[in-house]
Amino acid sequence: MDDKKKSVVLEALTDFITFVSPYFFYFFSLENAWRLIPVCFGFFGLIMLIVYCAKIPINYNIRNLKVRYRTTLLTALAFILVTAVLTGLMGFINGLKRLAQATGNPSNVIVLSQGSTDEGISNLAFENMGDIAQQEGVQRKNDEPLCSRESYLVLSLPIAEPVPGSPTRRLLQVRGLFDPVASAEVHEFGLISGGEWFSEAGVRPNANPNKAPLVEVVLGQGIAKQLAGDRSQADKEKARNKEQLEVGDTIPLDTRELVVTGIMKTEGTTFDSEVWAKQSVIGPLLGKTNFTTLVLRATDPEQAQKLEDFFTGKDKDFKYEKSQVNAFTETNYYKSQSQTSIQLLIGTILVATVMGFGGVMGVMNTMFAAISQRVKDIGMLRLLGFSRWRILVSFLTESLLIALLGGLIGCVLGYLCNGLQATSIIGGGAGPGGKAVVFRVVVDWGVLGIGLTISMLMGFVGGLIPAMSAMRFKPLESLRG
Amino acid sequence: MTAKPIVRVSHVSRYFKRGSERVNVLNDLDLNVPEGQFLALMGPSGSGKTTLLNLIAGLDTPSEGEIWVGDRCVSTMNESQLARWRNEHVGFVFQFYHLLPVLSAYENVELPLLLLPLSAKKRREQAMTALELVGLKDRNSHLPSQLSGGQQQRVGIARAIVTDPTLIVADEPTGDLDAKSAHEILDLLGTLQRSLNKTILMVTHDLRAARRADRIQHLDKGRLVDQPDESLYEAG
Amino acid sequence: MKFFMLILKNLRRNMVRSLLTSAGIMVLVFVITLIWSILGFLDMATSEKAANFKGIVTEKWSIPSQLPFSYASTLENGAAREESDVKPIDSMTWQFFIGSVDKTNIGYSTFIFAFCMEPSKLLTMMDELDSLQPGPRATLDKAIKAMESNRQGIIVGQKRLAAIEKKVGDKIKVFGINYRDIELECEIVGTFPPGRYDNNTCINRDYLNASLDAFKAAKGRPHPLAEKTLNLVWVKVPTKDAFSKMSSQIDNSPMFAAPPVKIETASSGVSNFLAAYADLLMILRYLLAPAIIITLTVVISNAISISVRERRKEMAVLKVIGFQPNQIIFLVLGEAILLGVMAGAISSIGTYYFVNRVIGGIPFQIAFFSSFPVLDGALWWGAAIGFITSFAGSILPALSTRSIKVVDVFSKVA
Asked: Is the whole model's pTM more than 0.95, yes or no?
């Protein structure tokens, strides 16, 4: 190739990449990836159409796949494994991402102390909270600003009868509330029927008069299930519901006991893993009397965004100056908590690339062998007048068929993970902090689309190079063998 | 030739089951081959000559009867004993040479010696001697693909004689060669027979090749026959 | 050994196939090496040691643990009151200081996460730093001496140093994030050896405590966190018995009423913290790693069965000239295993040197671990994975050579 030709090729290649890359990112974002499914089938359909119109003897390839069925199955197995593992993992990440997205009301604004990006290390002075809530844009009810003053803390609760080798304690996320009714209104969580919010006192008398009063708590559904599993064998047998804690059940906490007064409808949000109690009761009990979080309900999402800008000083002319705080709309806050899923996504992409590479090596071996066994056949086809590109398409179809088959089975296996309950941590990255969350694995069309596409890509790349080598055979020489 | 027989085939039958039907390939066959004889086996396709060769060379076992080679009864050995026996006592020459394409001429010849308890030096000596006998000592490092058909067959013969076997069996050794090369290969086999006193069993279609042997034995329908119909061999 | 050359030449016969297969093995072994290193490291961190194990004292209920600094001296003694009580062999206090070198812009390029502690404890109590080679140990010791003579001296991990674009000898101001209104003026006097502490900083605890006192003197009231500055106390005890004895000393001590404290072994502390990652680690251990190993087996099996099928005739010839069926099986297995072991070993040993020497660890954030070394086991993992997968992948194709009949050589005339 001379230099001029080379530069034309390079230019075309650059143009192609610039043209294609936005589509790549568009399609590979989980929201849009479902479109890849019609793309995959469309591509395969196109190839089949070419095969049909060009009268390529496709039966010959299918027969060959059948004759060498062991190799075909082994190769397909590699595709199945890669696709299944990939869709399972993507489903895990998708679940985490969905959780972070579903949590948070766009009209709510979270206010934390200056520099804090995580509730865990925030420390708000109580005296400043009143003024912050009085700002314009905050919704009012009965002439009072609608807001929730909260103290978020993580409790390390011993597990009754830990299995040897597994953790002996559970990290429990507790949210102490100043005014439960206001908080419920801000977060808009209802209780499952039969439950009630805690009383004004936040405690209720113990059946045993010699013991301290019970601390009233309300649980998310996810944590109610997990705590049910942490109980001792004896308690489990006595329990009315073995799967989940119910209203009236108690949780031991050192010398005190917590009593469940209600279960919140929190499924699909991070609050599903939280225990709510009255801050004036739980705070002193655990030695945490400060507040970490102030959640404001703005009149609408637009106002919420304005409040975020106002408190963080993004708007230079109009900024809050009485104290320095950090603020996010709730949606933005939980979006920033997806750091963990981004890291996992990067890890998954690495693993997928590597496994895909292994799969490509496998399919290349298969196709090279298939071709070397059929050198004479190819020579014969060429002599009969089949052009080079017809030979190429015919062999490419063979590997794409294996890829499609393996990819589809892999997707079905991956789909089996859909809905499994899993636990993980979400958070903003380094250091302590982050929230332990319970969520469900979501294998949706987007995830399946990515799985199928990667399988097809493997088949395409792994089939193309051997097919090109088949294309280059000279008919007479290959017949002589 | 009045030497004692080195190969004794007595009352040998070989039949295969094809479904419920029994196909007799060899029928109550007797054959003696004296030591040092060059015997050509001829016969039409399906006459059983290859089956007979397989039985004598220890690649197959008879359904009935006994085969003795030297002082060993070949027909009663198991597969593993046969493999060892073949390695030490039989040299094979094939129509399509069957050299390993990845090994050089020398390494191909050395191959059977790897199975014997010999030092590397001893193996080298023996393999080079064998190559010298077939006249390819200077080509020892060539790969089979770098040799002509006749040369490849010479390497095949060197591999057959390298273990100093009791018996050399050759299956159409000239079948894939042009007339000149075929002539040279047959010369070589004759020389080896005379100078090393080897017993050679050759299966062939080619009457000209067969005439180079000491004795021609014809087979038809699984039996030895004295008066063959020579028109069967016109192809050769 | 006599067959070694034969095996080697067979591998060279189809270079493309051998290269494709080994490339497949290498990348897959690379990922397994990373996964096993992370899992193995976490396993080591959570496995109970038999002797000289470390315990962590923290606030009983709350996370993060925040204790008054007045607890420090009692806890450093293991709350020993009687002559017969157990005292730790060694101990260390940790006070976390989270800060930023830029007050208005807090992010990756300004963030500082520091342990405030007694500098000398770096060499005796910190995991990994307590078992350094003489060279790096002397370097670190020099920096510690500098911290002791100048309490504003700090040691910063190499990655952190690069991130904030500073070097040893520079002076920096660190604005407190968890300690509001506390500003530390520090001088960087040294750095940690590459690895686990790449992103961490060590500050002399005397300097933090003095700064808090200065805050009180200037403002006339104590800092809001003044009574919550002690986050962790580490103690080292010789035996399990000593540990449980000290545990009851601490539980029964009247000193620690509000807030109450607990002691747990370092390993159980870590494993409790990792509990939230349990599912993730389970996926890595029981789904991903096995799936990769199976993929590997399938790739090898595919390659080997293809080459066996191509060579049936040759194998029949070998049988004719006297090779035993087992020797043929050995040749096939040998070919697969040689390839598997070589490619696997090259990959995992290469990963070991590349990741540990060049990159300085696997950058993966789990809990407070941000970087994982490739474990010494990687030196043999690759060979072992290669051996097992290639054996598993080639045993069936190898056994299939038994069906090759010697008589086929003669009867199949083209």
From this structure: no
